[in-house]
Design brief:
Structural class: alpha/beta
CATH topology of one domain: Rossmann fold
CATH superfamily of one domain: Glycoside hydrolase family 3 C-terminal domain
Shape: globular
CATH class of one domain: Alpha Beta
Length: about 700
């Protein structure tokens, strides 16, 4: 079915509804209309890294981990599996007349907000801090979810539009002030690219942007989204956001007015209850029936494109045994392995021989944690492999001991409930071990979405610091004092510095993110050299003493690798391997108004097979506006045996080679324009850590 045909069918069906019936379809809990043969439909489902919150499904690495793969093709494949499993579950839900929440195939993912500040708790849901990488992975994810058939296999939804990245505790009433320059250079590109790639939905954010609520924003919704980008899909509010317009933003005086201003600005679907007041808005002449009809028609166009009303429902032949199947589990492990970033490997300590007969202690709050595998917005796996489980499976000849060592961030002496003070137990295990795997980090109870939990370390899901919680720091330093061979494994969704003492003493530091249900096996496989690490940082990891700008300040100056003041501890784009790669013979193949093509030869100069995630960065200057230090504009993957050489080609959209002026216009830079090709960002810290400089190509 073409979109035009779906629009015609939607128009015809909606024309048969009364005003009250149309309004009932604009709520996420869309009511059945029995006289028209319409069943209930709940629009709310989550699928950022697996079909969430409705029974068993494959739990893939969280979005920030997938971003570390720097691999759009892998992200596309994962998303395709998510939509396949979504259809499997949906087919069964329809069969048993189960139309409850999280049972549909309209996924409210991906989250393509920019992870502008390392303290933001929801950064784990994003593809990182860079607009190009976020756009590339976002488009790949959306195409994987929606498929390429006559009907959508499922639908994706780009969120949260726009200029949204914390703080969590203020989001319901906060006004994010952003210049046109920062909006069009940083906050909007991923939305523009995913809309133009055909995403079915866009979700509005809770906050205001430059004075207007994001779910009732005349400029962002009507001028930019609908008019300039020609978006004809559905717009949905974040859950409860329309109530914020009335209650917290104080933008209008009544709930009916909140409903009206949202609908007038083309918010089609309300996740919440405010659109129950649309009947009042209609009777008060705040909205017209035409406004209501237009929204209903856009929503029903989506439902027709999903094949809901077909005599033979599309994708109904996907069998139940595809759910959590062997192939999907294998892909899950592959995704986890390609997402892990090796930050530090003193004197090539890793990999270890898996056949060693050693005493290995696995110590830390994430040693046996399932929640640290899951992240948030997660599915429920049929099997979880924790770090301790993975070490037992891989290092079968070693003696493995396990101690939690501490809670995530709360330590309590004389705790009647027990488990409040565990550090001596963790240190004792490390003292008796030849090797200690120190599994540290966070989970979604510490960093996440508006948790409401506030203590010395976290504020409603946002971190107050970019270090470990004090109790974990205490454990880590004590373990490093007792055990000579410490491997630090960080599991969290953000930037954390483990501190100079731990950095100087640890033999290796691994950032594993929230790696999915098989993450513990992926971590153990990396330690044992079952594969060579190839993950790259999608965020900047800052030194604990880095002077961060205000969390409330949405000006990009001083933020992310593109505008950082000073040096990163571990830069965006950085990651170590067990082998080495040489870049040679970089060539400019094509240079025209729309694209620039560059090729480079990559040789595996080490002793092991490995995967290299090659990167291209642009550096340009313009006297009329400020420009980034560097801008990622191309990524490519090369899988090479020892001694093998391959030529990779980057097709770079000149969109990313433009300066953005104070009005938000993309303009040809009036200064130098250079490209840098290599396995990392061309900054001095990356050059020093990896021991080589990128190849420079002058474009002007």
């Amino acid at each position: 079915m073409t979109k035009s045909e779906a629009k015609i069918k939607a128009k015809e069906l909606v024309s048969k509804m009364t005003v009250e019936e149309k309004i009932s379809q604009l709520l996420y809990t869309s009511a059945p209309i029995e006289r028209l043969g319409i069943k209930a439909y709940n629009w709310w489902n989550e699928g950022s890294h697996g079909v969430a919150r409705s029974g068993t499904a494959t739990v893939f690495p969280h979005a920030i981990a997938m971003a570390a793969s720097f691999d759009p093709e892998l992200v596309n494949t994962v998303a395709d599996v998510i939509s396949t499993e979504g259809r499997v579950k949906y087919n069964q839900h329809v069969k048993y007349n189960d139309f409850d929440i999280f049972k549909g195939i309209t996924f409210w993912a991906p989250n393509i907000n920019i992870f502008r500040d390392p303290r933001w708790g929801r950064g784990q849901e994003t593809f990182g801090e860079d607009p190009f990488l976020t756009a590339e992975l976002g488009v790949s994810f959306i195409k994987g979810i929606q498929g390429e058939g006559e009907f959508y296999k499922a639908t994706a939804c780009s969120k949260h539009y726009a200029v949204h990245s914390g703080p969590e505790k203020d989001r319901h009433g906060f006004d994010a002030i952003a210049s046109m320059h920062d909006m069009y250079e940083t906050y909007l590109p991923a939305f523009e690219k995913t809309v133009k790639a055909g995403v079915a939905g866009v979700m509005g954010a809770y906050n205001r942007t430059n004075g207007h609520p994001c779910c009732a924003h005349p400029y962002l919704m009507q001028e930019v989204l609908r008019k300039n980008w020609n978006f004809d899909g559905y717009f949905v509010s974040d859950c409860g956001a329309l109530n914020d317009i009335y209650e917290h933003h104080k933008y209008v005086n009544t709930k009916a007015e909140a409903a009206a201003v949202s609908l007038k600005n083309t918010c089609d679907l309300n996740c919440g209850e405010i659109y129950q007041h649309l009947i009042d808005a209609y009777e008060e002449d705040l909205v017209t029936e035409e406004d209501i009809t237009a929204a209903a028609e856009r929503l029903y166009t989506i439902r027709f494109l999903l094949g809901e009303f077909e005599e033979t429902r599309p994708y109904s032949d996907i069998s139940y045994d595809k759910l959590d199947c062997k192939e999907h589990r294998e892909l899950n492990l592959k995704a986890a392995q390609e997402s892990i970033v090796l930050l530090h490997n003193k004197d090539n300590y890793l990999p270890l021989d898996k056949n060693i007969q050693k005493r290995i202690a696995v110590v830390g709050p994430n040693s046996m944690s399932v929640t640290a595998l899951e992240g948030n917005y997660n599915a429920y796996a049929s099997e979880y492999i924790t770090v301790a489980d993975g070490m037992r499976r891989v290092f079968k000849d070693s003696h493995i001991t396990v101690e939690k060592g501490t809670n995530y961030c709360l330590e309590k002496e004389n705790d009647w409930g027990g488990f409040g003070n565990l550090i001596s137990d963790g240190v004792a295990a490390a003292a008796q071990a030849d090797i200690t795997v120190l599994a540290l980090g966070l989970d979604c109870s510490i960093e996440g979405e508006d948790t409401g939990f506030d203590n010395d370390y976290t504020a409603c899901g946002d971190k107050k610091y970019i270090t470990l919680p004090a109790t974990q720091q205490k454990l880590a330093e004590a373990v490093c004092d007792e055990c000579e061979n410490v491997i630090v494994v960080l599991m969290c969704g953000s930037s954390i510095d483990v501190g100079e003492k731990v950095r100087s003493k640890a033999k290796a530091i691994i950032h594993a993110w929230y790696p999915g249900s098989t993450g513990g096996l992926a971590i153990a496989n990396l330690i044992a050299g079952e594969f060579s690490p190839c993950g790259k940082l999608p965020i900047t990891i800052y030194n604990e003493n880095h002077n961060l700008t205000s969390f409330l300040d949405y000006n990009m100056k001083g933020k992310t690798y593109r505008y950082i003041d000073g040096e990163a501890l571990y830069p965006f784009g950085y990651g170590l391997s067990y082998t080495s790669f040489a870049y040679n013979n970089a060539k400019l193949i094509e240079n025209n108004a729309d694209s620039v093509k560059v090729s480079v030869e990559i040789t595996n100069t080490g002793d092991l097979k490995g995967i290299e995630k090659a990167q291209v960065y642009a550096k340009f200057t313009d006297s009329r506006t400020y420009t980034p230090h560097f801008q990622l504009c191309g990524v490519a993957k090369a899988e090479l045996d020892k001694g093998e050489t391959a030529t990779v080609t980057f097709d770079i959209d000149t969109y990313w080679l433009k300066a953005v002026d104070e009005n938000g216009e993309r303009i040809t830079p009036d200064g130098e324009l250079k490209l840098y090709v290599g396995g990392h960002q061309p900054d001095s810290v990356s050059n020093r850590l990896l021991g080589y400089e990128c190849i420079e190509i002058n474009l002007k």
